[in-house]
Predict the structure.
Amino acid sequence: MRAAVCLVSGGLDSATSLAVARRDGFDCYVLSFDYGQRHRIELESAARLAANLGAVKHLIVPFDLRAFGGSALTADIDVPKSGPEAGIPVTYVPARNTIFLSFALAWAEVLSSFDIFIGVNAIDYSGYPDCRPEFIAAFEKMANLATKAGVEGQTKVTIHTPLIRFSKSEIIKLGAELGVDFRLTHSCYDPDERGRACGLCDSCRLRLKGFADAGLRDPLEYRQ
Amino acid sequence: MRAAVCLVSGGLDSATSLAVARRDGFDCYVLSFDYGQRHRIELESAARLAANLGAVKHLIVPFDLRAFGGSALTADIDVPKSGPEAGIPVTYVPARNTIFLSFALAWAEVLSSFDIFIGVNAIDYSGYPDCRPEFIAAFEKMANLATKAGVEGQTKVTIHTPLIRFSKSEIIKLGAELGVDFRLTHSCYDPDERGRACGLCDSCRLRLKGFADAGLRDPLEYRQ
């Protein structure tokens, strides 16, 4: 069995990406981050998903992006609730996927793994620059120069993005096929103390529309 | 004044790189990392250097790379003392510069800065893959796709590596010219409790040879 490092936030995209890695026969080392996000409760989902989908190990790495701020998820800026607008939304966290993939690269190198899974998608997404295929391709190229692989000419690092060309409803259908338990996932940017989703932020809207388009029922409880 | 994010470990290379950024007229936001390194005492040097060289702000971001291990600096592996050997040494920390630059990119984007300084050099170095010019070029390309700059066609992110083609003695001479106080720097991978350098690890050896070649006296206290 080959080892892969799988980034799992606790949302349904990363859960489905993890399920794909398992289907493809990887031993999965699941990595999550406690980065000071407003919706920190997603980490409980990440832990339950890692266990449920048979991860070998789950690590949560803490660091605090509130030290920089600059996003509605890491600073005192309201999460928009009136639907998607043009441009990059204030929920964008500067360089977040670059940081996440960098830690994944570090763990992969220590594990002698050359496979990293990330659940980004560039179709039904929020317009974040670091979800685009051209970013992933550039990261992969850089990763192969950053590590021993690039110097010693070993196996190349691959950044797997199994969902990058999928619509949200396609992701949900695939996740359902692969046995992802969507009750364990969390998508909302602005949950209440009990973890209930708001139903109004961009992430909730994309999720609800995805379930509707897939003809499936979202098992989560929404507070409105 | 333009703002730059300057990575400063506390060593003499990054101190000189910061001095170059100041000479070139940048307002410097200094970034250091408490990553579980054996020579954590270098952070005291980083703080003193930031103050001494007129940084606008100094942030130390903590995260623990001991969670992954895999290096003599972050795991229970002895630091070699018998001089450089062929290949990538055990003091290499997987993906460390990728992680450091990713955080620098995040802070730069929040500050609306497009300039990042890092004191890597590819001449008198320890053979780490992430100190090579081809890695830096690939990171810069990736950085411009990872952030708003790449989407909105703003100013491009530049990763400045003013020392990349310098020998250690050239770095020391330049640092001396620019007024770097080398008493404030720390290079040793394996200092004692009082912070005294070992004089035998690769980092101490490169430093001592650099001072000798430059015809200057290293003001640090060595324990042997």
